[in-house]
Write a structure and sequence with these properties.
The chain is mostly beta strands and 502 residues long. Helix content is 12%, strand content 44%. The protein folds into three domains: 200 residues, no CATH class; 125 residues, Lipocalin, CATH 2.40.128.640; 95 residues, no CATH class.
Length: 502
């Protein structure tokens, strides 16, 4: 009887279990109810400015696969062209956007700044505010956001050059406390500066209480460097200092410093200044940094490769290669626009000023660090000797002319930065660059297949003092936060083809 009862009990349990599973499948349970109304969800984003208004920045090595996605979230009008974009959370619960644009219908039209935010009524993004700036040359524009005033408001800053060759800076403040007011009352112009030199924001250290979210911080000052018209020496400069005036709500000049220049032949100075080609030829070659003590620091150098239109920054065991896009003459030199050869989103605006006939002064504005003064590459640089430049330029050049063969196929490097790789009947073409990271030579191969895919290799050679190298061994690697990581892949051995070895 016990066995019969157990069989019946087992059958009953099986039937009820089957019915329960079927009920869960065909009928929704009360705890799994889904609300069909829209719900805001948090998400992880990568700011297109590689930083935020509080000064927290991302490591560039984390952004090797980041490509330019410069797109306005609201449509532009006919004849308007997008120049720059900054996206982020600017005082609201949804992401919004600042854009810089210009009109093609007007000659020498100013660059405009606009604010795009999400409209709950139309459930779409729309342009809610725009204003002109003092800049007119799109190729010189740099758009940033920062807390200039230290009161946790957002300031959008546009720097660039105008048609007169002057450097300009225009800044607008977005007041988050005025969010319920008319849109025009939420924005106010706080700076409008132009000068025949360069402009930079002086970042002032702020207290730990400010960074912790308590209290306010000191507002940043702005320095504008231009010619000292009271001096007969063309290279003498003035530094006009601007500070924020709470009463007027604007940046106003509060001081001026005179910076004496070198007393050199004025005729040669006039030949260089104002002539872009002449000054580019003057820059071509290797330059070493001059320390504050006046000594030469050969471990930090800048190489202007005029032939390949590249600028190579060598320092701290790292070689950074930037494409030299264009040059705009300034009163004391050139304003250069550059872009990292591997990370398209990393750009540098380089102001080069003539200091003497064998030295220059560098000021850099980096998109990675917003607008700031204390760039590692700011300062004076002295020209290296022609012999030293000739000996080192071959190792600084990111492009070579050589043909290699190996078990996996042939690899041809062309001096224009293109390569051809052959595997049997398969041919792969693309672009390459040699560069340095932490003292190690690296090679990047980027195929022309329409994707951002790229391959990174550690370069090893037996005769690194001879160029081009007879033998190369390429170890596939990855660049990350921890630096260089060698992958567990078979190395590629290459041997120079033909009579190229010298």
């Amino acid at each position: 009887m016990t066995k019969g009862f157990f069989k019946i009990f087992t059958l009953v349990v099986f039937i009820f279990t089957t019915l329960g599973i079927g009920a869960l499948v065909f009928f929704p349970s009360p705890w799994s109810y889904t609300n069909t109304s829209p719900e805001l969800q948090s998400r992880i984003i990568i700011p297109r400015t590689l930083g935020d208004s509080t000064g927290n920045f991302l490591d560039p090595l984390d952004l090797l696969t980041l490509e330019d996605t410069m797109t306005a979230w609201a449509p532009l009008s006919d004849g308007e062209v997008l120049v720059s974009v900054v996206s982020g959370y600017f005082g609201g619960i949804t992401e919004s956007q600042f854009i810089a644009y210009r009109s093609l219908l007007e000659i020498e039209s100013p660059i405009n700044v606009a604010f795009i935010e999400y409209d709950e009524e139309t459930q779409s993004f729309r342009r809610v505010w725009s204003a002109p700036t003092a800049a007119t040359r799109p190729g010189t524009v740099s758009l940033h956001t920062n807390d200039l005033l230290g009161d946790r408001s957002i300031s959008v800053i546009l720097s660039g050059m105008n048609s007169a060759g002057e450097q300009t800076l225009t800044a607008f403040r977005l007041n988050p406390q005025a969010r319920g007011q008319a849109i025009q009352q939420r924005f106010s112009k706080i700076a409008d500066i132009k000068i025949d030199g360069s402009i930079a924001v002086r970042e002032t250290p702020r207290s730990q209480a400010f960074h912790a979210g308590f209290g306010v911080g000191q507002s940043f000052t702005i320095s504008a460097f231009g010619r000292d018209f009271e001096s007969a020496n063309i290279l003498d400069q003035i530094e006009a200092i601007y500070a924020f005036n709470q009463g007027s709500g604007r940046y106003e000049q509060v001081g001026m410093n005179r910076i004496p220049g070198s007393q050199i032949e004025q005729q040669r100075v006039r030949q260089l200044l104002g002539n872009r080609n002449e000054f580019e030829t003057f820059l071509s070659g290797l330059w070493h940094r001059v320390t504050p003590q006046g000594t030469i620091d050969e471990s930090h150098s800048i190489y202007f490769n005029l032939a390949s239109r590249e600028i190579i920054f060598v320092g701290d065991g790292t070689q950074q290669i930037f494409i030299w896009h264009n040059s705009n003459p300034t009163r004391l030199g050139l304003h250069l626009n550059t872009q990292n050869i591997s990370i398209n989103s990393l750009r540098r605006a380089v102001d080069v000023e003539l200091e003497s006939l064998d030295s220059i002064r560098i000021r850099i504005i980096e998109n990675v660090r917003l607008i700031r003064v204390s760039s590692p590459w700011d300062g004076s640089f002295q020209q290296a000797s022609p012999i030293e430049t000739h000996e080192r330029e071959r190792f600084l050049n990111s492009h070579i002319s050589a043909r290699y063969d190996g078990p996996m196929g042939r690899l041809h490097f062309n001096p224009d930065g293109s390569y051809t790789m052959g595997f049997g009947d398969t041919i792969v073409e693309g672009h390459y660059t040699f560069f340095m990271v932490n003292g190690r030579e690296m090679l990047e191969l980027r195929p022309n297949n329409g994707t951002p895919q790229r391959e990174i290799f550690i370069v090893e050679s037996e005769a690194s003092d001879v160029f081009p190298r007879r033998n190369l061994t390429l170890h596939q690697a990855r660049l990350g936060v921890g630096g260089i990581e060698r992958l567990n892949e078979r190395p590629l051995s290459l041997t120079l083809i033909g009579d190229q070895y010298r």
